[in-house]
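Before a colleague's protein record goes any further, I have to sign it off. Alongside the sequence sits a line of tokens, each denoting a local backbone shape. I want your independent view on whether this chain really folds as the tokens say. Where you disagree with what is written, explain briefly why. This is what I was given:
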Amino acid sequence: MLKNAEYHSEWTEPGVVRLTDGEFHEMILPNSASELIIAFYPDMYSIGDLNGDLAEDAAVILATSGGGSGTFISLEAVINDQGTPKHVATANLGDRTRIKSVLVKSGLITVDMLTHAPEDPLCCPTMETANHYRLEGDRLMQVSDLE
């Protein structure tokens, strides 16, 4: 269901995209070779309760490419709305960030990834990072204290 859900998107005029089999495609300009592609990051999601209602929600990773060299990675919080996935929040993780794993546990989302060290070229991040997020209403808040 997550690969065919609707997600909010700052990349499209209506501000919403619906994935089909994990992807969304749209021409950037008519008769242009440039295409906006939003894709479900392969096998990078985790199921767990994000909002304290004891239902199985999800944290998923999306990759967005606008036809240039950048690929912008984002963490998406999707709650279980009576059996239907409902996208509620996004956290941008950076350009060409490499995701190693996503885990939801006790309402906390942990994203293990490679980000860019100061000397890294954009193609090749090398700095191992673990970011932690908590869903607060309609926002994903990065947290540093892991109480």
In short: The chain has one domain: 2-143.
